[in-house]
Amino acid sequence: MPSFEETLTCPICLDLFDDPRLLPCSHTFCCKCLRSTINNRSFMICPLCRYHFIGQMLPVNRIVLSLVEQFRQEKFNENRSMNINAKCYDCKSYQKLDICCHCDTLLCNKCHNRHEIDWKNRDYRTNNLLLSKGI
Questions:
Q1: With a threshold of 0.90, does the pTM exceed it?
Q2: Residue 122: what pLDDT?
Q3: Which of 54, 69, 55, 53 is nearest to 19 (CA)?
Q4: Which of 19, 40, 42, 107 could covalently link to 111 via disulfide, CB atoms 3.0 to 4.6 Å apart?
């Protein structure tokens, strides 16, 4: 049985579906992948089952689109909440650290909370970006 991620993978580009389109035969492919398989014919052929159908507007597979978005969000949250036991960038103490989703800095919980507040302040973000670029 394929994994959840494999189910949400386009059989042509082997990546998560991007703008998934539903064919009349019920197979789903990325819109850009389907465009790459179209020849100058008046009909299309499904790359999986070889079903022939006349070129028509292919609807977005909204269920697959929703599942892909949910999967990407869960992966993002999983990576973001990854706990690492190392040295905090700000206070230099060794403890479990979180990764800032804005700048990928490793920070302890106390520093992370302060950093989140500071990050929302535009002057802080602009000054640190300029400093990090060596300007």
A1: no
A2: 53
A3: 69
A4: 107
Amino acid identity, residue 70?
A: Q
Structure tokens at 108: 């302890």
Angle at 118 between CA 113 and CA 123, to 5 degrees: 170
The reported pLDDT for the residue numbered 84 is: 62
Go through the domains of the chain in sequence order and give each one's CATH number.
4-80 (3.30.40.10), 84-132 (no CATH)
SS (H, E, C) the chain: CCCHHHHCECCCCCCECCCEEECCCCCEEEHHHHHHHCCCCCEEECCCCCCEEECCCCCECHHHHHHHHHHHHHHHHHHHCCCEEEECCCCCCEEEEEECCCCCCEECHHHHHHHHHHHHCHHHHHHHHHHHCCC
Which residues in the chain come in under a pLDDT of 70? 40, 79-84, 102, 121-135
Biggest distance spanned by C-alpha atoms of the chain: 67
